[in-house]
Amino acid sequence: MPDRPPVPITCAGLTRIHDNGVATLDPLDLTFAPGRTTALIGPSGCGKSTLLRLIAGLDRPSAGEVLIGGLPPARQAARGAIAMAFQDPSLLPWLTLRRNIALARKLARRPADPRLVDELIGLVGLEGFQETRPAALSGGMRQRAAIARALATRPQVLLLDEPFGAVDELTRRQLARDLPPLWHPLGTTTLLVTHSVDEAVLLSDRIVVLSPRPARVVADLAVPLLHPRLPQVADTAAFRRIAAQALAALAQGVADSPALAAQ
Ligand SMILES: Nc1ncnc2c1ncn2[C@@H]1O[C@H](COP(=O)(O)OP(=O)(O)OP(=O)(O)O)[C@@H](O)[C@H]1O
């Protein structure tokens, strides 16, 4: 059962213009419903990571605002409500895997829970590596450790930026099957950035397709497939139809992009 209530995320008129003048968001108006999982897909460089960083409170918008359960991201981050697993997991090199994950709970002001920590390590397939330091883990293992670390805080908001990028295909499928049941019962509002359309359909309740930079919403697709989803769902007509719609929207966004059309 959730011990903290599910929260919505609202982005209103959100723009980020970097110091070099690069504008990443068009501005964006998006609301993410409490407890739902949304996949964000879009061409490389369109602004997906920028959007996630703004929602995480790691960056500030040039205009507009993000509210999480009515509060600014920095306030929610300070109370340990937000957890992230990014492409390049920043595990502390001097701590073992178990201690890295336990520390995340401490930083999120959650009581120690060694059983949960070990359970998560097992679920991401790192059983036996509890006392190993990050340097002795492969890139894919470190990514899985980062996912366990994010889930260990029992967050209200979970931000996943290409979390399976360095993970092999079979392990990816296993994680896609095993991980969502960990955050669904908590009512975690989850955003997943991925380059894989199939991963987006498999893991999410909704897919937001973004255009090339500056990102605007090209399509907003519901994924009305029942949970839990076994990998075989990818062979169903409903799954393939949604994947085809997402792919077509991606292509349309690129075709309609003024920047690319001018090249
Ligand atoms: N700190 C920064 N300073 C200047 N430009 C930046 C900065 N961060 C990002 N950008 C630019 O903003 C744009 C969007 O970057 P972002 O990382 O958000 O894209 P993305 O959609 O996540 O890309 P990818 O799918 O390749 O990871 C890119 O053109 C990038 O060069």
Layout of helices and strands, plus pairs?
Elements: E1 9-15, E2 28-32, E3 37-41, H1 48-56, E4 63-68, H2 73-78, E5 82-85, H3 97-107, H4 114-123, H5 139-152, E6 157-161, H6 169-178, H7 180-183, E7 189-193, H8 197-203, E8 206-210, E9 217-222, H9 237-256, H10 258-261
Parallel strand pairs: 3-7, 3-8, 5-6, 6-7
Antiparallel strand pairs: 1-2, 1-4, 8-9
The protein binds adenosine-5'-triphosphate.
Describe this structure as you would to a colleague.
The protein is α/β, with parallel strands linked by helices and 263 residues long. It has a domain at 1-81 and 189-263: 3-Layer(aba) Sandwich (Rossmann fold), CATH 3.40.50. The protein is built from ten helices and nine strands. It has helices at 48-56, 73-78, 97-107, 114-123, 139-152, 169-178, 180-183, 197-203, 237-256, 258-261, and strands spanning 9-15, 28-32, 37-41, 63-68, 82-85, 157-161, 189-193, 206-210, 217-222. Strand 8 and strand 9 form a beta hairpin. Helix 4 runs antiparallel to helix 5 (139-152) and helix 8 (197-203) packs across helix 9 (237-256). It is globular. The site of adenosine-5'-triphosphate has 14 residues, from helix 1.
